Amino acid sequence: MIEEPKTRNRSVWLILGGIGAISIFALCALVVVAGYFLVATPDSRVESSEPASLRAPIVQQLATPAPPAQPVVISEGVIDYETAVLVAIYEKVGPSVVNVDVLSFERNLSPQLLPPSAQIDPDTLIPQGQGSGFVWDTEGHIVTNAHVVDNADQVQITFTDGTVTIAEVIGIDRHSDLAVLKIDPDGYNLVPVLPGDLDQMKVGMRVAAIGNPFGFAGTLTSGIVSAIGRSIPGLASFSIPESIQTDTAINPGNSGGPLLNERGEVIGVNAQIRSDERANSGVGFAIPITIVERVIPVLIAEGRYEHSFIGISGNTFSPICAEGLGLDAGIRGAYVSAVLPGTPAAKGGLRGGDVAIQNDSIGICPTEAGGDLITAIDGNPVARFDDLLVYLERYTSPGDSVTLTVLRDGKTIEVDVTLAPRPEAQP
Question: Which helix H or strand E contains 246, and what residues bound it?
Fold first, then answer.
């Protein structure tokens, strides 16, 4: 479960996938998809570090692996290092980035957008939006955002050399906002991207984005990693943990394109911005490669991906709440405010708060005491609620059993929970 943030300003989270030019009798419409920031816990806006001593990631090889790509090579010569890096990134990765044009039948047009004399042909496809994508393998699979191609009647792919082809949407995961397209690879020189290592990224490192902002194909922008470990809203009621914040200019149309490290490796999929003006403000977000590498192969193989689900809501324990909850101010963990009936957490015996308490820290502290405090999962320390989300996304699948270390009534106990699939996300 995801809690609504306690405060909300005028800023709008823009899901970038859609700037489309709708042309009917010289009429154009600009489509920008917007959503409000929904996070897992009130403190999800703070940087996180992943739990220590995590076991090795689960690798799912469900599709033919792409041939190894060569890292970016910086030529010696007359230009400075930063320029050389960006030039090398663009030359290396540019051919792997595509424009994604979404078309729908005219029946989906609002009558208010058409002249009174317009005659609607229900069999005519018209542009509805634009986004970006990148080549995943030589078999014709292309990665983009789910919100870019959601409800599309037809998807067109345009390569950097101007060639155009039709793509089939073969898999969508609304929880991670990822989708896979498939084209016939015959006749195309497909150059797969090279995934990077998120664990090697540090705040302040240079990154670059290549995409299709406002329909300007093949646009390169650059900046730095502003933060790692943000939780951003998905298309369902669950957040996407471990996301990357960057000041790299990303705008509507960049959605689905790659965020690249200095080696030209993909570390994230550009997905959202935060802006009062519905344009770049230096606060953009990318879905982390850790999630991409788990979700995409499964979407290719099965068309859908199931995320682990435990069935609790809560927040990070703060010392200011210690007295009201009857806990030591020096401990850290994820406080369980509520356990949903019939969920893995309920079946495993986790407890939520059930004793109403008075507190003056509205929005920080729970309103009910008596809930479990989770301090570790499978032996890995849990300092904040997002540590649970990161661990579940990175290292577990539905059906797995996890052991939670829990502080309950002043005693430390272990609770075994068998994970289930998340409830289906509704469009």
Answer: strand 239-246
Q: Which of 141, 147, 175, 307 is catalytic?
A: 147
User: Which has more confidence, 363 or 372?
Assistant: 372
Please say whether the beta carbons of 13 and 232 come within 8 A. yes
What pLDDT band is residue 414 in, cutting at 50, 70 and 90? very high
Point out the domain boundary residue: 280, 305, 330. 305
Beta bridge partners of 168: 182
Domain range spanning residue 359?
308-421
Alpha carbons 8 and 23: distance in angstroms, whole number: 36
Residue 334 lies in a domain: yes
pLDDT at 338 over 80: yes
Question: Which of 96, 132, 226, 255 is flagged as catalytic?
Answer: 255
Is 147 labeled as catalytic in the residue annotation? yes
- What pLDDT score was predicted for residue 175? 95
Taking alpha carbons only, the member of 14, 41, 83 closest to residue 280 is: 14
How far is 125 from 353, CA to CA, in rounded Å?
A: 53
Query: pLDDT tens for residues 79-113?
Result: 788 899 999 999 999 999 999 999 988 655 555 55
Tell me which of 137, 150, 177, 387 is the catalytic residue.
Answer: 177
- Whether 293 contacts 269, CB under 8 Å: no
Number of alpha carbons in the 13 Å side-chain half-sphere of residue 203? 10
Same domain for 234 and 164, yes or no, is: yes
Helix (H) or strand (E) holding 408: strand 401-408
Q: CA 13, 423, 33 angle in degrees (round to 5)?
A: 20
How confident is the model over 6-33, as pLDDT tens digits? Answer: 333 434 344 444 433 333 333 333 333 3
Residue 190, CB-side half-sphere exposure with 13 Å CA sphere: 22
284 & 337 share domain: no
Number of domains present in the structure of the chain = 2
Contact between residue 195 and residue 99 where contact means Cβ atoms under 8 Å apart? no
Nearest to 196 by CA among 143, 93, 265: 265
User: Could you tell me if 97 and 180 lie in one domain?
Assistant: yes
